[in-house]
Structures are given as C-alpha cells and as structure tokens.
Amino acid sequence: MEASQHIHAEPGSSVYAVLHGDIHVRNGRPVYQVAPFDLTRRSVPVEAALRQPSRLLAAENRIVPFHGRGGELDALGRWGEGDTARSVALVHAGGGQGKTRLAARLAADSAKRGWTVWAAHHRSDPIAEQVVAPGDPGRTLLLIVDYADRWPADDLLMLLSNPLLNRPGRCRVLLVARSANLWWPALQNRLSKAGLDTGPTLELPALAGSHTDRQISYRVAHRAFADALGVDDPPLPAVPAGLDGTAYDVALTLHMAALVAIDSFRLDLTAPRDPVGLSRYLLDREHDFWLSLHDNGRVSTGPSIMRRAVYTAALTGTLPHAEAATALDRIGLSGSSPSVVVDDHAVCYPPRDPAAGAVLEPLYPDRLAEDFLALSTPGHMCAGYVPDPWAARAAERLLRPEQAPSPPAGGPHWFRRRAQPPPPEAVPYTRSALAVLTDTARRWPHVAERELWPLLRARPQLAVEGGGSVVAALTEIGHVDLPALEAVEKCLPRHQDIDLAPGAAALSRVLTEHRLRLSDSPAERAKLHEALGTRLLQAGLWKEAVASFRSAVSIRKSLPDGGPSSNRLSLASALSDLGMAMHRMGRQQRAVELMGEGILLFRELQQSGVALPVHDFAMALSNLGMALMEMGRGREAEPYTAEGLRLRRRTARSGRPEAEAELAASLDNYGLLLYQRGRPREALPYVRDAAERYTKLHGTHPGRFDEDVSIALKNLGMVLDATGDAPGALDAARKACAIAEGLARRNPSAYKRLHAYNLHGLAIRLHHQDQFEESLSAALQAHEIRSALAQDGTAPHVLHLAETAGFVDTALATLDRPAEAVPYAGEAVGLLRTLYEAEGRIYRAYFAGQLVALAQRLSQVDDPRAAWPVAAEAAGHLRAELRVAPDSPVRSVLLMCLVVWAGLSKDLELWSEALDQITEAVDLYADLPDGGEDDDAWGQLLSATRAEILDALNGGAQDA
C-alpha cells in the first residue's frame, strides 16, 4: 500500500514540510524556502505597462527575447552534464547585466531536457501561510539561488548540505550574485572540506561588446517594448548617443534606452540621452502613476508620501504587514497612517505572491531602485530630479535599534542592577537595507559620503549585523572612508565567524594596504602582515595567509639581532603562525619545522632573561605538539604538549572562559598523546578532567563550546575503552556523537568532519561491546562523510578516510564477510601508500600494518597469490622501521605479518620460504615481553606451524 501524509493548516497557522530532506527552522520560521522555479513568463497587460513602463524591465516578465550569452550557456550546459553527482557553480556580475535572465534561460532549457528545477529563497523573503514542500527532485535537479552573496554563509552552507540534494542522481546548484569577492573563495574552501564539487565561476561580460552587437541588442529590445506598449508603428530605432561608452556595457541600460525611446515617442516627449536621464525619465513616470491613482481616488496617499514609502520599500524589501507599518513609522511619515500607506503602496506595487502575505514590494529592477534612492537623496548634481530633504539620514532613522522598555525606577540597588534592559536588537531588515545602501553607494558617491559613511561612523556595529557580504562590499566603494572602516574593524569579533570571516579578511586587506603605505617602521609593518594573516586564516584563505605570515617573518628576520626583544618575541610567534597556516594547507613537515624554529627562538629569549608572553608561548608549544601528534610522532610531541599544559594551568587562574577552554584543550591533547603512546591509565585523568571542564563551560556558555565538549567526550570514551571500562566508553561515545550530529544538522558543512570523527569513535566502542551490526552502520556513515572530505587531497582528510576504511574492513571481517571487506582494505592501503610516498617514514608503520590486514583478507577469500606479495611488502617496511626504532611497538605487527606470510607460503607450497618466515617469527617472539595467556597461545601457534612446515620439508626430502 502506498504511504501518504495529509497536512491540514488552521487559519493563521504555518505549515512547513519537505520530502526526503531537512527543514532548518530558526525562531519558528524556515531559514530558507525551496520551491519549484517559476518557468512561466509573466505577462504585463498593455494598460499596466502604459501606466508603469518600468514593469516591462523586470527580469521575470521576459519581455525582451533572450539573446546572446551562448558561451556562458554552453559552459553551464557542460557543467550540468558532467559526471559529478553534486556540484555548485557561480554566475556573477554587476546589477543589470542579465544574471537573472541567464539563470531563467538555463532553468527553461534544463526543464525541457527533463530536469527538475527549483529556486531557493532566504528567510528574508517572508513566508507566511504556506506549505513549503517542493516535492520529489527526480533523477536530475537544478537549484537556483539568487542573491547568494547576501545569504549568511552558515545558512547557505545549510542549504547546500541538505540531504534533499543527495537524492537525485545528479544535482547542480547555480548561485547568482553581484560579486565573487572573498565570500566565494571562502565558500569554495568550505565546500571542498564538505566534499562538494565546485563548477565554473562565470563573470558575465558586457552583453554586447562591439558597437554592432549593441545596435542589434538595442533594436531587439526596441521592437519588444513597442509590442508590449501597443505601439504598432514605431519609428526606426535611432542609435542612442554614446553607445560605445562604458555605461552601455550594462544590458539593462540598453533595454532602458529602448523602452524610453518607445514610451517618449508615444507621449511625444524628448527622450533623454544619458543613463541617469533614462532612470530619471522612468522615475518621473512612476510619479505620474502615483499622482493619477491619488487623483482618481484609488489611494488616499499623495505622491510625496508615496515617494517616501517607495524609498522605504527599496531598503527593507518585502515585509509582513505589521512589520511594514512599523518600518514606515520608524522612518518618519508625519501626518500619515503607516497602515494606510502600506495598503496604498500595495495598490501601486502589488505583491508578487499575495498568498505570502508580504507587502512593500520594492521597485524593480534593483538598479532602477538604487537610482531612485540616490536621486531622492540630497547631494547629487543631476538636474531635473529634485531630491527630497526628508531622505537625508532616512536610513539612519530606519535602522534605529529596537530597545526594550526600561525597568521601573526604585527598589533595592541589587535589583535595579539586574533589571537593566537588554541590549538593543537589530531591526529585521538590517541585512537588506545595508546591502541595498552599500550597492547604491558604489555608483553614487554622495550616498556614500552623506549617508553610508556617517551612519557607520556613528554605528559601525550595523555593518557587522549586515553580514560578511556587506562588510566586503564596503571595501569596493570607490572612495572608502577609512575612519568608518576602522570603526567597523573594531566591532568585528576576534574569533572565527564563518559568515563574517570573508568580509573581515577583505576589510583587513584594505586597511592593511593603507597602513602599510603610511608606515616606514619595519616592526609595525610586520605586525600589520601578522594581523592580516590571522584574518585570512580565519576566512580559510590559507595560501594568502601563508604569504602574509611569510612577509611578517621576512621583515622580522631582517631586523638587527641586537634589536628590541619584543621583535624577536614577535618573530617567534610569527613563525608559529606561519607553521599553523602551512599545517592547514596540509604541508605538515614544513609546518613542524617552522613551529620548531619558533619554539627554539622562544627558548633562546627565555635563557637570556626575557620574560615570555605566557599565552603566546603556550599556544606555540601546544600547536607544535598537536602537529607532531597528528603526524604520528608522539615521542617528540610529548615534551611540547606537557610544557604547554603547565603554562596553561597558570593562565587559567584568570578565570576567563577562554583560558579555561585552552587549559581543557591542553589536558585533552596530553591525555590523547599518552593514550597513543600506549599509556591509557596515565591518560585517563587528563581526558576526564578535560571532558568535565568542557562540560561545565558547555553548560554556562550554551552553544559556544559544543564542538569542544563533543571531541573531549569522544576521546574520553576511547581512553575508557582502553582501560577496560567498555560500558562507560560506549556511554561517552554516544553522548559525543549526539552532540556532533546536532551540530552537523545545524551546519553540515562546518561540522561534517566532527560528525565523522565521532561516528568513527562510536563504531569502535560498539565493536568492543560486540554490537557488530550497529558498529558497521556507524563506520559506513563515517566512511561516506570522510570520502567526500578526502576529495580535497589534504593529508589529514586522506589519513582519516584510510582509518575508517581500515575499520570497515575489520568490521566486515568480524561479521564473516571477507569478500565485502577486501575493497575497503585495498582502499586503506592505496590511501596510506599515497601519504607514505609523499611524507616518508611518518606513515610507514601505519601503512605496513594496513598491508598486513589486506594480506589477511586476501587469504580469507582464497587468493594467496595476490596476498603473498602484499605480506612480503609489509614485512619489508616493518623490518625497516625496527632498524630505525628498535623499541617501536611494530614488533608485534611484524610477528603477525610473518605468521600470515608463512601461512601464505604454505598455501603456495613454498616450504623453504615458509620455514625462513616462521623461524624469524619464532626469534622475534622470543624477544617480546611476557604477555600472559595470549603469549602462550602465540607460542603454541608458532610451534605447531613450524613443526608442520618441517614435516612438509622432510616429507619432500624423503619423496625425492
């Protein structure tokens, strides 16, 4: 029987549903809406076009036939037909260049080829009484995301990681944006970490590059607008003056010129000859429309107030009715009822989706709305369009924070202090208003000088509330206001913020370039490079971060040795930072060399009597210890990790949560190091202390330490397991996995790695509790995530995938499914071979151990000829490792390898080789420390195997 679900919504309620995917809800509303892409062409009645000719310019009306862009369509077509299951591409260009039309054409072409086509809208597009249920995506899906650069990065990553996009055999996501500033490279890094492919990045050039192409485009638009306006016999289109100029690089300007030419001919008016004049003409026609509605009694709001409502709508975008009325009241419409003005505005600009319940539909296209804002704002020099003095500082009034009422006066002092009002909250349309205002300021200097910069000098936090794309866009305005940018810089959080990080890096880059030009102090210049490197590192721009830190190190090394000790301290920190950037790039060997150089310099200064900055030195020690530990060099890592821990115990006395978290990290790292070195009982107090400290921080600072407590619990489970407390280990692992899964659901791209880490740990704990099927299930989930992550080729991701593939091999073998296990064992060997060939000895023992596992699995599927050379290679690597490190724990692995190898030689009747191998195993066994009952079993196995081989050899001699 086919399953079905029926959803009923009562009046005033909201229903949100999705098939085969996740819904991400924030404050009772979905973070984004996915809906079928509107493939229909919206017709504009001639009567409506005659009243408001600008409506013919809206991209969704598709009045002008699509033409050109063949190269871009071909590139997107090849991307769509590629072999990758999921891929994300970007189309970007300035306003009016035809991005939305190109996306719509791609959508239509894809639908004709049988693709499902959806559109994603951020929560800033109001959703009221709607059922959000796009249906089944089918076998091939194209998802189009317009204004992608205005989405918070977290929200965009949530969308791109939704399981809904995994269902089709092929899924393509096209992001449409005005710019590809640092937000896009940073997002590409995040997507790469999440295993998502990125396709082409297409910047749209001018639609018509040559004079001839522009003439053709103009004439096509001229004919289309004549038809739409009912002009049966238009004049031959005259070529606009200045057609070769840069103003006509923008496709929208060509279309506006054609539209104005037809409309002015119809009304027997003189058409303007410049792009600003075209906007002014169309805005005058809007004013005429407002006036006619008022004169005819269809609206009670006069043109002057309607102009201000349109101004407000251009900034806020669509809003629910109550919020729209509040916005109009806030911006200041004296003598008018905001609710009445909202209703009248809806008569002038009907909502695109009446069912959504949103009003204040802005003027379209966006570029015309920006010109309207600029021409209405005092300060421009354009004759013929009188600005409205009311518009001066209108954005400042609109964006006033919402302040809760103050508590009543009186009462005890302690009560009044606790009853202080909460900090003011940003209005809900802050991101939209800041984005529109910033885009307008890029083309209209007076908007920047009189509105944007004064606003940000007074309230720089607004830029941060506007999001990373706004912060980045500020740096692209022609004449930046450095005091305003510096004020914004002070409001940026020092810690990493995924949404703000790209904008913070762009801002830091601009300010650093300016400050470098002003500074001739080498020490100051080095400090600037260091600060920029930190911001670039936070944005995931590792190569650029490396370049910045390199510059800092180079400058500091060039300073005289006898200079201030502060320079050499800074050099030590810069070397550590450069090493960390190298580590992020996957260049571990060079990373530890640089970190080690920094530590040596710290020690030299300490020995010469210089007081070291405890925090910086502890950070450098901890980072080096962590890097060495990840490379399998635990013996070298231990003293650095232990010293970093001692120092952090001192800094934690300050009581700051950051210092407490750093101490917990050092405790956890040191415990993990002891565990990796075979000392789990010594490790247990450290990892338990770390887990308890993080759990306490997790409780007192909700959401801030989720990732840390998840890692600490996972490590605690691992150590408890090694000390024999299997139930406690499994309990800790389940708690860790639950936290990580919650984080991954909220932000899959950011926390997939953590989720896989915890799934892998849970799989091991389950296996040790003999819950083999559940263990395999968790391991396969981890393997799927880590397979995607490892596509970036970085050593940590490749190593983690090898670990999980090796465990899946073990889990399947335990369930007596060796044939299914062989591919996973082979995958682990292939991955580790890559690391071993690239990095050398640090991966040799691990690689050899996995070779032994592969040899065992091949033996179990009765393929001794394939297994024999694998075992031989493993033995060679293990012997080499023992020659270099005689005390290495690989002795027991070599013993296992020799026994497996001897068994394979027996199967192939290579008796002499088998005798050599088992004899070597017996000698090796004799040198191992006493291991109790397990050793007795080994001894019996070796004796029996050797006797069997000797019998075979003796029998062969007698037969001869």
Question: What's the short story on this structure?
Answer:
The chain is mainly alpha-helical and 960 residues long. The chain is built from 39 helices and 12 strands. Helix content is 63%, strand content 5%.
Main sheet attributes: strand count, strand direction, barrel closure: 6 strands, mixed
Number of strands: 12
Helix segment tally:
39
Question: What spatial order of strands do you see in the largest sheet?
Answer: 4-6-8-9-5-10
Q: Measured on Cα atoms, how large is the radius of gyration? A: 34 Å
Helix content percent band: 55-70%
Structural class: mainly alpha
Tell the overall outline: elongated
Mean pLDDT: 84
| Beta-strand content estimate | 5-15%
Low-confidence stretches: 5-15, 126-131, 404-423
Report the end-to-end length measured between terminal Cα atoms.
73 Å
Structure description:
By secondary structure, this protein is mainly alpha-helical. Helices cover 63% and strands 5% of the residues. A 6-stranded mixed beta sheet has the order 4-6-8-9-5-10, sandwiched between helices. It has a two-stranded parallel sheet with strand order 1-7. The chain has a two-stranded antiparallel ribbon with strand order 2-3.
What's the topology here?
Blueprint: E1 15-16, E2 25-26, E3 29-30, E4 32-36, H1 46-51, H2 70-80, E5 86-92, H3 99-112, E6 116-122, E7 131-132, E8 140-145, H4 153-160, E9 170-177, H5 183-193, E10 197-203, H6 211-228, H7 251-267, H8 275-295, H9 303-316, E11 319-320, H10 321-331, H11 338-348, E12 358-359, H12 366-376, H13 394-398, H14 413-418, H15 430-443, H16 445-458, H17 461-466, H18 468-474, H19 482-491, H20 501-518, H21 522-538, H22 542-558, H23 565-584, H24 588-607, H25 614-630, H26 634-651, H27 657-676, H28 680-700, H29 706-722, H30 726-746, H31 748-768, H32 772-789, H33 795-814, H34 818-839, H35 844-860, H36 864-884, H37 890-907, H38 911-926, H39 933-959
Parallel strand pairs: 1-7, 5-9, 5-10, 6-8, 8-9
Antiparallel strand pairs: 2-3, 4-6, 11-12
Helix pairs in contact: 6-7, 7-8, 8-12, 9-10, 9-11, 10-11, 12-15, 15-16, 15-18, 16-19, 18-20, 19-20, 20-21, 21-22, 21-23, 22-23, 23-24, 23-25, 24-25, 25-26, 26-27, 27-28, 27-29, 28-29, 29-30, 29-31, 30-31, 31-32, 31-33, 32-33, 33-34, 34-35, 35-36, 35-37, 36-37, 37-38, 38-39
